[in-house]
């Protein structure tokens, strides 16, 4: 296997991930607050227990919003070579995936409502075994990547 | 090529019965409710019977009408199916999109000697339509097959009819059932059955029955467990007999044909070109006797596209090479497998014992203190067998890349060996977690297409360098570099 992939995702991805992380943590935080309140009102548990619960969730949220997006962005790399797409990602479990262009059936770009605000898009390409994606590229670069994959896939078919 | 054809008249019956089946769920509840709430008076029973008759007549009428409306034809280069009583539909499938023509003989079709024909399309697209004809007699099936496949296979003079590769004997069938290892599944079915009984009979009855049968709980356990196991085992044998009676594998050119089933006779076609991987599975009860079963992963195949299909249900392990050489030669390799490095043994044992370690260290004291039960103290005794299982998983794991085919052996309860040609791999991946990084180990994963999704060939904890080399060697460029 050659050296790791070279291209990075768009840096705006970090902010986007912070926002989605915060949105994901919100219900948990609310739940923890209610649980703590419930403990105070009806349980005979001490105040300490409720505070600890909320604190734990706040720390978790801090990690998810503050630390994880940056680490994730630093790890995420991709490269579209002439014969395969190379992906690297993951914080604890670092995965490297190689998908031969000859196996790619079709490729799209997609954009969620939050991504649209940031001008980011996700490239999704499908093999017979399922989809793979390169998330959070700036929209013009994503379109370029999509067209390049489609073009190279066609060339592979002609070979 | 041919004109519009109707189904066999049994199609009316099939249509009527399937309509009844659809309606019945909506009718049973009000019917039973009526009987129960109003009591079994002459009036309610008459009303009930009248309802049944009306429904049956309507279903029969619907069966007839839909039979009359259903016609099929092979014209030019496409198969056309017209359906629908009120809402007419016409479906056209180009013949070169047809992947296989399968037949199923259900319990209704069987006494009349007719078949349900399923036309499966290639392309793996969900939007691609499949067509099903509910009743055709043997001649009609053969004519249709000839018309459809005739366009695909041009060298018709070479067609000799399929040659039978292997047939499952009655003895093998019973052995397959007895060693199927489906006991767990059967056991859960039994458990549901017991629960049903428990709900159905008054509580008192069950307790009294239990009390007369066994005076104390030890007796209950000693009697119920073996009886339950025996019943589950018999159920597993029964299931195997239902599914695999008369299992016959034959091959003609590039197509494999499978016939099987006791009550419902199924005939399936597997084009060799669509087989992505073969898995040899030596179940826990089979490995000691040197037996195994074979499955194929095939892409976008059949109605139940999500699952892989049984290629042969029971086979001596040492005949597999010979068998595959005639059935699916592309997959007939038996290389010597490379073992994992010794340092991965620790990870295998840890993975197997992890859960029990947690239970032993955390749950055992907790169960003593909180639940006042000594049950948690059993956990440490489970660590030893779990560790032994981990060691087995390590010992059985192995891999090889030979003649462009990837072979991976692993254990998940039973020992499995998967074979996939390089050109069938959809993607390769190497994953490392922090512990693996410290030990210079990695997990290798290759995906093949299976059904509508994918299925993975995974090697856990092989040398990190070897994993990277393997991923590179399986790449598109490597082929040319070596040549």
TrEMBL record, chain B:
SUPFAM superfamilies: ABC transporter transmembrane region. One of its GO terms (molecular function) is ATP binding. Residues 67-148, 244-323, 394-470 form the YdbS-like PH domain. GO terms for cellular component: plasma membrane. The chain crosses the membrane at residues 42-65, 173-197, 217-244, 348-368, 374-394. Keywords: Membrane, Transmembrane, Transmembrane helix. Pfam families: bPH_2 (PF03703). It is found in: Cell membrane. It is a multi-pass membrane protein. InterPro entries: ABC1_TM_sf, UCP026631, YdbS-like_PH. This is Transmembrane protein, distant homology with ydbT. The lineage of its organism: Bacteria, Bacillati, Actinomycetota, Rubrobacteria, Rubrobacterales.
């Amino acid at each position: 296997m050659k050296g790791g992939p070279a291209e990075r995702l768009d840096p705006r991805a970090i902010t986007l991930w912070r926002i989605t992380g915060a949105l994901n943590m919100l219900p948990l935080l609310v739940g923890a607050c209610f649980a703590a309140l419930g403990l105070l009102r009806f349980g005979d548990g001490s105040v300490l227990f409720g505070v600890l619960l909320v604190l734990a969730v706040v720390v978790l949220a801090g990690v998810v919003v503050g630390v994880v997006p940056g680490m994730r962005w630093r790890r995420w790399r991709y490269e579209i070579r002439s014969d395969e797409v190379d992906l690297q990602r993951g914080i604890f479990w670092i995965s490297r995936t190689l998908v031969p262009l000859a196996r790619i059936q079709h490729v799209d770009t997609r954009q969620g409502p939050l991504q649209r605000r940031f001008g980011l898009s996700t490239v999704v390409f499908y093999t017979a075994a399922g989809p793979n994606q390169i998330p959070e590229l700036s929209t013009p670069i994503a379109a370029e990547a999509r067209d390049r994959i489609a073009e190279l896939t066609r060339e592979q078919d002609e070979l | 090529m041919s004109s519009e054809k109707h189904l066999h008249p049994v199609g009316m019956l099939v249509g009527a019965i399937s309509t009844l089946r659809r309606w019945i769920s909506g009718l049973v509840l009000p019917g039973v409710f009526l009987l129960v709430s109003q009591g079994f008076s002459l009036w309610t029973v008459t009303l009930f019977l009248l309802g049944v008759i009306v429904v049956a007549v309507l279903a029969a009428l619907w069966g007839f009408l839909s039979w009359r409306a259903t016609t099929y034809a092979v014209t030019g280069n496409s198969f056309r199916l017209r359906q629908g009583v009120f809402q007419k539909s016409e479906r056209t499938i180009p013949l070169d999109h047809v992947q296989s023509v399968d037949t199923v003989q259900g319990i209704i079709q069987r006494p009349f000697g007719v078949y349900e024909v399923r036309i499966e399309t290639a392309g793996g697209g969900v939007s691609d339509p499949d067509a099903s004809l509910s009743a055709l007699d043997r001649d009609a099936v053969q004519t249709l097959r000839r018309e459809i496949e005739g366009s695909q296979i041009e060298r018709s003079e070479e067609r000799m009819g399929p040659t039978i590769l292997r047939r499952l004997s009655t003895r093998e069938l019973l052995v397959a059932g007895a060693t199927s290892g489906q006991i767990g599944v059967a056991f859960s079915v039994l458990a549901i059955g017991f629960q049903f009984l428990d709900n159905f009979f008054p509580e008192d009855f069950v307790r009294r029955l239990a009390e007369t049968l066994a005076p104390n709980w030890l007796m209950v356990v000693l009697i119920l467990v073996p009886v339950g196991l025996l019943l589950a085992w018999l159920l597993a044998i029964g299931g195997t007999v239902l599914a695999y009676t008369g299992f016959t594998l034959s091959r003609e050119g590039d197509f494999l044909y499978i016939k099987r089933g006791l009550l419902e006779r199924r005939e399936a076609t597997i084009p060799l070109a669509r087989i992505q991987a073969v898995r040899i599975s030596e179940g826990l009860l089979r490995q000691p006797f040197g037996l195994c079963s074979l499955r194929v992963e095939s892409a976008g195949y059949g109605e139940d596209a999500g699952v892989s299909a049984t290629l042969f249900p029971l086979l001596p392990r040492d005949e597999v090479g010979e068998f595959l050489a005639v059935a699916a030669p592309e997959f007939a390799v038996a290389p010597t497998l490379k073992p994992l490095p010794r340092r991965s043994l620790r990870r295998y044992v840890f993975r197997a014992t992890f859960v029990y370690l947690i239970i032993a260290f955390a749950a055992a004291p907790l169960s003593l203190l909180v639940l006042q039960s000594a049950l948690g103290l059993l956990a440490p005794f489970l660590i030893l067998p779990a560790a032994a299982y981990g060691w087995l998983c390590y010992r059985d794991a192995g891999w090889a890349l030979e003649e462009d085919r990837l072979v991976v052996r692993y254990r998940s309860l039973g020992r499995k060996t998967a074979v996939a040609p390089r050109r069938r791999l959809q993607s390769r991946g190497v994953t490392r977690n922090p512990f693996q990084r410290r030990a210079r180990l990695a997990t290798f994963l290759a995906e093949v297409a299976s059904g509508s999704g994918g299925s993975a060939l995974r090697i856990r904890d092989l040398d990190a360098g070897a994993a990277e080399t393997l991923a590179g060697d399986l790449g598109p460029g490597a082929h040319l570099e070596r040549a």
